[in-house]
């Protein structure tokens, strides 16, 4: 945002700002390269407005022609660190998903790490201020105290229709103007001039801060999301009634009837149009202009005329867009012409048909399906297509190997949901028999009925491509899954519904997420290093993605889950714990799913970019293993396949019946269990 006149009058500004960036970049977690991006991720400081103001204030008083001293550069860096910390905390408080066109830190890393990273940035900035001296530390602490007080007042006044202009300006002066004022004051203090000059620069920064915030509030109403870098009209929806809204409320009573908590999108747009149509935005622009002029008046008599004119030019570049901003037209793209299927897609369809035909034959040969009709059960017939999405580029043998394994896992899960499983003891016997089969997979191929045969045949293919370490881990995950599946069956039979606190851990266990992650490693052709598997961003992606996919599945199966008494469905748990209506619970879970996929997309889209500077550190992918960045890209490319698995819900039914194969397989396993006990 540096203008031509600013660059000419203050020739060292760009190089000094680069020195600021170097200091800011030192704020990280020592010895944890995998967390470096957490505090270095761009967070709205592209233009470095506050450090620029600190340096300009120094130049005006110390002389425009030379580079800033070390103390001035440190002061500028400290203010930027404090600003970055406030942004991280603000985004967590507001649950904001974007910051200046990029996913916010909390959207990518989660609220806990975002808050802690904000704390780290705040302490880093405060330490630098303390190094400058006691006076700097005191004025900084006082400014931060006023900033926090302003944020508290604004939060307390949310959705307050009687909010006054005086209250708005008081909060604006505290939460925004104080930091710009602090930047100017700290920069001026390093020039060693008289207190009157320091105070003049500080008051200049304060008035500029008010103008800047009013400008920002106007843009929230008038800009497009692309221009603003985040969703627009958010203040109205969040109940933060800014100067244009306060003026509009005094003029149009219809606006007050619209504004409330939980404002739907359509009504929020109507409210925005009412604000735009009554002249309130033009009034706010005048206020912003007046504050900008007041800022420039504070410069009179400070420094030389050319420096003052350069600073004035910078002020106009910062707040000048207020005068031109206005509602932008929405461009509606023309529909894309229909295109013929590509040769690759046709070839893929043929491959899927071939693999599905092989699966149908295997289902009959192994005994999982007793008839041709059973082999075409929807729960099974979509497996080839789903695995093709999960493993793009795989050949028929690879797809069949994965599809066989996934089919066996689906059968294991479905057996505990089968309606004929009617008592706890039977559930325990079923789990015990399956545990014996799975526990011996890598030693002695299991023998017995259809499930034992299918397990042995599917595992034999897995043994050929996966190392012993993977197989040991996968068997352990399967055994854990069986325990969770038995627990869910017992909860269903007893009518137990967990608390919201317990719902996700229980749902995660019974869904067998680690088992599906093991299958994901099959498609990558390698086993992930622990440093990659345990990377905090991948663990966040796993938790968030699992919760979202499972909640989406709960929405799709809520009718059947209610009928069968499925205990972990999130809609049921919400109703049970909060007493809300069924539709309210569905709406809340729908919102969680939409928000979850937005955050997953943020991680998958921005993750490779923000991790690239640290890609040579922990989890860089040595020894033939995929690096973290590579895993994120693979997940992004294959997410549709993993969602497709859940699209084949457990209540799918064939044209003949919905569960005779499960009842038959369950009886067979229980008979094997009884025969084994007699033999012993």
UniProtKB/TrEMBL annotation:
Q: Which InterPro entries match?
A: Isoprenoid_synthase_dom_sf, Polyprenyl_synt, Polyprenyl_synt_CS
The answer, when asked if Ion transport is one of the entry's keywords, is no
Concerning Pfam families, the annotation shows: polyprenyl_synt (PF00348), Terpene_syn_C_2 (PF19086)
One GO biological-process annotation of the entry reads:
isoprenoid biosynthetic process
Q: Which GO terms describe its molecular function?
A: metal ion binding; prenyltransferase activity
Coiled-coil annotated residue ranges, if any: none
Instruction: Report if keyword Glycoprotein is assigned.
Output: no
Keywords from UniProt, A to Z, are: Magnesium, Metal-binding, Transferase
Q: Which cofactor does it need?
A: Mg(2+)
Query: PANTHER family annotated for this entry?
Result: ALL TRANS-POLYPRENYL-DIPHOSPHATE SYNTHASE PDSS1, GERANYLGERANYL PYROPHOSPHATE SYNTHASE
State the family named in the UniProt similarity comment for this chain.
Answer: Belongs to the FPP/GGPP synthase family.
What name goes with this protein?
A: Polyprenyl synthetase
What is the scientific name of the source organism? Microbispora bryophytorum
